[in-house]
Amino acid sequence: MLISVVVPCMNEEASIPVLVDRLAQVVAPYGARAEIVLVDDGSTDGTWAAIERAQTTCSCLRGLKLSANRGHQIALTAGLEAAQGERIFMLDADLQDPPELLSDMMSMMDQGYDVVYGRRRERQGETLFKRATAWAFYRTLNAMADVDIPRDTGDFRLVNRKTLDAVLLMPERARFVRGMFAWAGFRQIGIEYTRAPRALGETKYPLRKMIRFATDAMTAFSTKPLKFATRMSFASLGFSALMMIYVIYSLVIYQTAPGWASVVLAISLFSGVQLLTLGILGEYIGRLYIEAKNRPLYFVSEDTRSATLLPLRKVV
Ligand code: UDP
Ligand code: MG
Prior knowledge:
Blueprint: E1 3-9, H1 15-27, E2 34-40, H2 47-57, E3 61-66, H3 72-82, E4 87-90, H4 102-110, E5 115-123, H5 128-144, E6 153-160, H6 161-168, H7 177-184, E7 188-195, H8 207-221, H9 224-254, H10 260-293, E8 300-303
Parallel strand pairs: 1-2, 1-4, 2-3, 5-7
Antiparallel strand pairs: 3-8, 4-6, 5-6
Helix pairs in contact: 6-7, 9-10
Residues 8-10, 12, 41, 69, 71-72, 75, 92-94, 96, 203-205 line the site of uridine-5'-diphosphate (UDP).
């Protein structure tokens, strides 16, 4: 097997036929040496039926159905664990990432690179809010993270077996796949492309999921927020020292320290600082707890390749 194409799909019923068509054309030159792995991430629409239907027309297609929705990054991981190719190509189901870029990525990999990732030159058809938050996210992450995570880069990439095996050795539950590839090292290079608008359906990343994704990335790749909490407590100590001087001064000079406004100010400021610090701690402790439970990342409930698969067996 030369190439595996891995696509996580959640409620992508409408995109599947178009996606499979485009992918089939792209992998046609590799004939039987290509496979397409579609992972149904606990969809509630007809995604799985669409995958099964597509499978009857495209023999190189394999469908995996997760037992419940586990999120984009875990669905992607499930596909990566199932992939058998020497080179693994991953993209979104909504065709925002042009599959046709595969041949360019292949030739760059032929020059000796281990990872060829797509870098978004421009994002079409995305809201100003999405573009602004994404812009801020990649820059903040880079300022905070201990590894250099390429900016404006999604999971759209071609990786070789060596790099994938390295990444799959990382057992964490809070997965930020593009960061894990960056952390793994090896020889990496970007290739610029224009991100198309979503072909069909709507985004599966509402604000709630975006925030979770961003905090997962930040906490997984940086401990700077914890240091920030320490610094903030020093700043508030400094501030309270100044206040103390002021209070003593006004007691000595004016024999009174009028209070209501400054008391309210101090209480709200310091309780704010405390709660924020607790919140930052909580984000890390919650993740420690989840990692410590060491649960399997996902269960596969159906696999079009093997009818004898026991339900709930993890693909290895
Ligand atoms: N996705 C998934 N599980 C989820 C959310 C999303 O498998 O819980 C998939 C989705 O089907 C798509 C990819 O992740 O293939 C990226 O999602 P989407 O295109 O909605 O994100 P956006 O491009 O809007 O950031
Ligand atoms: Mg998309």
